[in-house]
Amino acid sequence: MFALGLVKINEREVGIVIKRFGTKLRDGQLVALKGEAGYQADTLPPGWHFWYFPWKYRVIKPGVTMIPAGEIGLLVAADGRPKPEQRILGQIVDCDNFQNARKFLLNGGEKGQQLGILTPGTYRINTALFTIITSRNAEQFSLEPHQLKVYQVKPDRVGIVTTLDGAPIDEGEIAGPIIQDHNNFQNGQTFLDKGGRRGLQEQVLLSGSWNLNPWFVDVEQVPMTHIPIGHVGIVISFVGKEHLDVSGDGFKHGNLVDPGHKGVWVTPLYPGKHPLNTRVMKVELVPTTNIVLNWASRTESHSYDAHLSPITVRSRDGFAFNLDVAQIIHIGALEAPKVISRVGAVQNLVDHVLQPIVGN
Questions:
Q1: Residue 286: CA atoms inside 13 Å, Cβ hemisphere, count?
Q2: Residue 264 near residue 217, CB atoms below 8 Å
Q3: Euclidean distance between CA atoms 130 and 104, whole angstroms
Q4: Cα-atom radius of gyration of the chain, to the nearest Å?
Q5: Alpha-carbon distance 164 to 292, whole Å?
Q6: Alpha helix locations (H) across the chain?
Q7: How many beta carbons lie within 10 A of that of residue 50, not counting itself?
Q8: pTM for this prediction
Q9: Whole-angstrom Cα distance, residue 26 to residue 277?
Q10: Which of 42, 189, 7, 39 is closest to 114 using CA atoms?
């Protein structure tokens, strides 16, 4: 075996080759692609391998990388191209899930923390090039073990996403636009290639399990927006497509837009739970049942009339006395967006429109 330079790699091992002498690697290069001295890019698969004489080569045999079910693995590359200044994560390149170090380096893989992740499975990775982070060693890299778990958005919650890489959000915007085809932030490279921006995102994550890179996204879970029975919700969006009024010529006191645009949405939300991004949208509840307003000492449970008081009137002979007045109003579901567009809230309708009319 010694005479033949015979090396055996077991099924659960990866053969990493270190060449003891040869051409020197260029400055900054760690892994050899052309047979230079040092760590070699190509690993040895399971089986018998000839001509690896111990006086010329050293072969180390770390175990294969295993990512358990329900977890992910992060990677840090010790070699590769430098990342552009505006990015913090190395781009994803074709390298067989980081198992082909040669392809990683030749296809433009970048040094440092990687955007790509490992999903559950077994991998033959050259650990001379890649440091692999799992829940077992997360704390050594300033991460919490739970960050290396498949991310779970709970039922009745939505995930508000902040991305940590990409170009800055456009001036005047408060969130990045919705980007298509990145599979709920699980394909970070597609997100970036299609113009995804760093920072708060308009898109939310729905209930489910997601393979998310914690170096790429941060998620905050908030309750879904609940519209109770007897109400509709009017969305006021601060993000979306360009404001385009669709209220028509008959509505002179405000603007309405289609869902997905900036402004007051013309379509109300009906009773139920809705997965809205409450960081970039506001929802005004509007009762669609009859509302009784009392200009009196008593107040209804809705409290819209909490600041109303009996009306003072004078008789013909000059005597002043207080008069209790009750008014019933009804706002139809399809009329509710117009009310919000005009006065902002039902309380404003009572205080600034109805009170002056009834009070006078």
A1: 33
A2: no
A3: 11
A4: 32
A5: 50
A6: 101-106, 188-193, 336-343, 346-349, 355-359
A7: 10
A8: 0.87
A9: 50
A10: 189
Token pair 């000839």 is at which residue? 50
Neighbours of 142 (CB within 10 A): 6
User: What is residue 307's predicted lDDT score, i.e. its pLDDT?
Assistant: 86
311-314 and 320-323 strand pairing:
antiparallel
Residues in contact with 137: Cβ distance below 8 Å, sequence separation at least 6, in sequence order = none
Distance CA 197, CA 71 (A): 26
Query: Could you tell me how far CA 282 lies from the centroid of its own chain?
Result: 19
Q: Check: CB of residue 309 under 8 Å from CB of residue 295.
A: yes
Tokens matching residue 282: 């506001």
Q: Tokens 């990015």 correspond to what residue?
A: 87
The tokens 């002056």 sit on which residue? 356
How far CA 267 is from CA of 235, 263, 282, in Å, comes to: 8, 12, 14
Question: What is the strand order of the sheet 231-237 is part of?
Answer: 263-264, 231-237, 281-287
Tokens found for residue 238: 């601060």
- Residue 62: partners with Cβ closer than 8 Å, 6 or more residues away: 13, 14, 16, 127
Query: Which residues are 201's β-sheet partners?
Result: 176
Q: For the chain of 360 residues, list the mean pLDDT of each consecutive stretch of 10.
A: 75 95 89 93 94 90 96 98 94 98 97 98 98 96 96 97 95 94 97 96 98 98 98 96 85 89 96 97 96 88 87 77 86 95 93 83
- Phi, psi for residue 9 in degrees, rounded to 5: -115, 120
CA atoms within 13 A on the CB side of 175: 22
The Cα 341–Cα 245 span in angstroms is 11
What does the block give as tokens for 257? 């837009």
Q: Of how many residues is the chain composed? A: 360
H, E, C per residue of 62-114: CECEEECCCECEEEEECCCECCCCCCCCECCCCCCCCCCHHHHHHCCCECEEE
User: What is each CA distance from 342 to 254, 261, 283, 337, in whole angstroms?
Assistant: 5, 18, 15, 9
With left for phi above 0 and alpha for psi between -120 and 50, is residue 326 left, alpha or beta? beta
Instruction: Give the three-state DSSP class for 346.
Output: helix
- CA 178/CA 56 separation, integer angstroms: 55
Three-class SS state of 145: helix
